[in-house]
Amino acid sequence: MSERACCVCQVPLTGEARTIGKRCYCPDHYARVTRGRDHFWQSGWILVAALIVFILLVVGVDTFAQPTLEGGLLLAVGIVLALVPALIWLLFFYLQDRLEPEPKRYVIGVFILAALLAAAIGVPVVNDLFKVSSWLYESAVVQLVGGILVVGFSQEFLKYAAVRYTLFGSQEFDERMDGVIYGTAAGLGYATMLNIQYVMSNAGVDLSVGVIRIVVTALAQASFSGIVGYFLAQDKFEGKPVWWMPAGVTLAAVLNGLFVFLRDLASVRGLQFNPWNGLILATLVALAILGILFGLMRRANRASLAQA
Amino acid sequence: MVDTASVRRATALKGWLDELLVVVFVVVALLLGWAVKGWVEGQMVSFTSEDGSISLRYPARWLGQVDKNALLTVSDVRQQGAFKPTFSLSTREMNPDFPLTQNDLLVTLSVAKAEALTAYRVLSGGRATVDGQTASTMTYAYVAEAAGAPQNAMPAVVQAVDCVVTYEGEAYVFTFATLAEHFERDEAIFRSILGSVDFD
User: Fold this and answer.
1) pLDDT at A1
2) Which of these, A197, B103, B168, B199, has the minimum number of CB atoms within 10 Å of its CB?
3) pLDDT digits (tens, 9 = 90+) for A240-267
4) Diameter over CA atoms, chain A
5) Distance CA B29, CA A157 (A)
């Protein structure tokens, strides 16, 4: 007599089990995995809007008040700015608490782990081992190819690892949406470390230019790791073929490298830098990816429910 | 008969294969990236100043030019056009008793070039980062005649940029000039050269 177990809680299933693809579920986890959680997506749009408002506030203060910031104070302000996008996202996520029973410590844990991986591995690999600043800008083709192969793959793999080797096998990862949530948290953690490193290496930043770059980095990193999170969720809950996850990481890496290439193309003229073009691009990319992931998740949940 | 343990083993094995394949993909990508890095660097030549205070890399196809006022002057002589893209590096010792800012240096350079160059115009100023040091830049244009050009040849409109960095009591001036119509295309090489600068 064959016996199947729920792929989330490993409880043996008696009688007819619910399935999605090749995965079996107990009734409780089947109901969870197909939950839509539309309010998460609503908070995603609101988050993007909140970041734009944050930028306008900082630029407004810098333009009209023209604060004189130097030395340690400039550095401290820069670090605070680097932390704000993640804090805004965590605040919105916390406000969903009554609807989203996701353990906050896990979300924060993935965030911190991704930041540590960025500091310990990601940044040293890109800046010290590959020394991209000395060769990546040789030509447009080299910038695009090198950006994908080196920067894209190293960043997306580390964000993938922050989720895959921690929460992926746990019972807390019990809904499709968890993939996107944890993936986004990993992306924000990685972005926060990149932003802190950017502020520290320049001993502080110009407020207007710096805040735009910080938000652009946060939006982009969160978007691409949201894609990785989606692929992780589909792999866990539908038992995708063995090429599925490599394809997901590759897709995120290609989008990462392509985004940086297009952002530089739009923002840089000679040695002059217009950050607003990069912000427009990042906002459009984040909204597009949010929308696509939302549509894919909704379609997958509907297909699962129709199958049942 | 399939038992739960077998299902779990099969699932775990499939999970390991997934992870292994992801790692293989990433390793292959990084190796290809390393190959691209090696190829690009193979196209570059290293230069180090006599006192070892600065080193950088420039395209191997560019040829050195004689310029007694500069540590290094190289041009892409194979480029078509009346004016070849040219990069030069020069230094100025700073007087510690009368320290000049980078902007002061740019103004000094600008005055000198206004006297020496035909139809000299300052286009814009800005900031950059060279080996972690803040730099000041000035973009300008002028009219030049190609060396050895016939009398009836059209003079060339040149766009150039000076990038000034002060480091350990010395001012380093990086200058890049090319035909104005090619400036946006060619300045990527200047950014690449600046990216390779290493102050010791």
Assistant:
1) 40
2) B168
3) 888 999 999 999 999 999 988 888 777 6
4) 77
5) 11
Task: Write out chain B residues lying below 8 Å of A135, CB-based.
Answer: 37, 40-41, 44, 192, 195-196
Longest dimension (CA), chain B: 95
CA distances from B5 to A11, A13, A257, B10 (A): 12, 13, 42, 9
Query: By C-alpha distance, which of A175, A169, A41, A181 is closest to A110?
Result: A181
Residue found by looking up tokens 């965030």 in the block: A111
The answer to whether B63 touches B81, Cβ cutoff 8 Å, is: no
Q: Which of B25, B40, B124 is closest, CB to CB, to A250?
A: B25
Instruction: Give the range among A23-32, A281-290, B154-163, B188-197 with minimum mean pLDDT.
Output: A23-32
Distance of CA B49 to the CA centre of its chain: 17
Do the chains contact at B21 and A5, CB–CB below 8 Å? no
User: In sequence order, what DSSP letters do the residues of B97-159 get, joined into one string?
Assistant: TSPPPHHHHHHHHHHHHHHHSEEEEEEEEEEEEETTEEEEEEEEEEEE--TT--TTSPPEEEE
CB-based contact A246 B4, cutoff 8 Å = no
Helices A38-60 & A207-238 angle (0-180, nearest 10) = 170
The CATH number fitting domain B45-199, selected from 3.40.1000.10, 3.40.50.1820, 3.40.50.720, 3.40.50.1000: 3.40.1000.10
Task: Please check whether residue A10 touches B, CB under 8 A.
Answer: yes
From residue B148, how far is each of B83, B155, B157, B180 by CA, in Å? 11, 12, 17, 20
Tokens coding A109: 């844990």
| B195 chain-A contacts, CB cut-off 8 A | 133-137
Amino acid letter at B78? R
Inter-residue long-range contacts of B125-131, CB under 8 Å, 24+ positions, other chains counted:
B126/A271, B126/A272, B126/A273, B128/A271, B128/B163, B128/B194, B129/A202, B130/B163, B130/B165, B130/B172, B130/B174, B130/B194, B130/B197, B131/B165, B131/B197, B131/B198, B131/B199
Alpha carbons A22 and A7: distance in angstroms, whole number: 10
The rounded distance, in Å, linking the Cα atoms of B138 and B160 is 8
The whole-number average pLDDT for the span B127-152 is 82
Q: In B, residues 143-172, which contact A (CB 8 Å cutoff)?
A: 161, 163
Contact A10 B4 (CB under 8 A): yes
Structure-token match 């230069």, residue found: B47
Phi-psi region of B131 (alpha: psi -120 to 50; beta: other; left: phi over 0): left
